[in-house]
User: Fold this.
Amino acid sequence: MNDAIVLYCSLGGNTEEVAALIKEALSDRCRVHMHHVSEAPKNLPYEDSLLFLGAYTWGDGKLPAEMRKTLRRLYKEEGISPSDVACFGTGDKMFPLYCRAVDEMEHHTVRHGLTVIGPSLKIEQSPRNKKEEVRAWAETVHDIARHHQPIL
Ligand SMILES: Cc1cc2nc3c(=O)[nH]c(=O)nc-3n(C[C@H](O)[C@H](O)[C@H](O)COP(=O)(O)O)c2cc1C
Assistant:
């Protein structure tokens, strides 16, 4: 496993804050590329990297279209092969389908034959009071990815 790549979508900034905390947690361990999905450069080093995917949930439990389109491009058209994938998101428990976008990203990832390191991280609204939780999760995911030996 080489670099970590954090791709996220965020309207109000909550999911972006989680992405930034993940970057901060891992930046003394490896190179971290963090981008909004619509601004991610084409030449990111996906091969053999640990890919973090982050999204808010909107509508009736929906994954934002920009993340859905990005996953279609990366998984179906480009057929990228990161070493592992980890999913995170923010939502609001007042909605019946809490953080459902995270479950959908997991689903697409597994369907394309990639490994998701779980459990995924779901944060209610802002991570401001959950900095330690986010840091610990990111470090655990990175530890697992580092020791992950794929079965041939
Ligand atoms: C119109 C609307 C619909 C939403 N629907 C859901 C939902 O179905 N499930 C959920 O967990 N959160 C839902 N949320 C809450 C957002 O996902 C939550 O506020 C999130 O932190 C926003 O992330 P952002 O600041 O990165 O844009 C909804 C928010 C809005 C405004």
User: Anything to note?
Assistant: The mean pLDDT is 95. The radius of gyration is 14 Å. The CA atoms of residues 83 and 148 lie 9 Å apart.
